[in-house]
Design goal:
By secondary structure, the protein is an all-alpha fold. It has one domain. It is 81% helix and 0% strand. The chain is built from 3 helices and no strands. Helix 1 packs across helix 2 and helix 2 packs across helix 3. The longest helix is centred in the first third of the chain and has 28 residues. It is elongated, with a radius of gyration of 14 Å.
Length: 90
C-alpha cells in the first residue's frame, strides 16, 4: 500500500510541477503576475522535480537561470535515488 501511495503521489506532484511551469511561462508572455521562483523550487523539492524539469525544456522557461539549469536536475537525481531505495530496498 505504501508503494502505491508514493507512486501516485509522485505522479500527481510531477504533473503539478509541469503544469505550473506552463502557467508561469504563459503569465510571463502576457506580463502578468508570476509564480515565484521559490514556489517553483518548492514544488520541485517536494517531489515535482521531473515535471518542473520537463516543463523547463518543453516550454523554454527558466533555462537561462543557472540555479534552475543545475538545481532542478540535481533535485531530480536525488529524488530518483530516493524513489529507487524506497521501492527496491524496503
Amino acid at each position: 500500500m505504501r508503494k502505491e501511495f508514493s507512486m501516485i503521489y509522485f505522479l500527481i506532484i510531477h504533473c503539478i510541477g509541469f503544469i505550473i511551469m506552463k502557467i508561469d511561462k504563459s503569465k510571463a508572455k502576457h506580463h502578468l503576475y508570476r509564480i515565484s521562483e521559490k514556489a517553483l523550487f518548492t514544488v520541485a523539492i517536494i517531489g515535482g522535480s521531473l515535471g518542473v524539469w520537463l516543463g523547463m525544456y518543453l516550454f523554454h522557461h527558466k533555462t537561462k537561470h543557472w540555479y534552475f539549469v543545475w538545481g532542478i536536475p540535481i533535485i531530480v537525481i536525488i529524488q530518483m535515488i530516493i524513489i529507487y531505495k524506497l521501492h527496491f530496498h524496503l
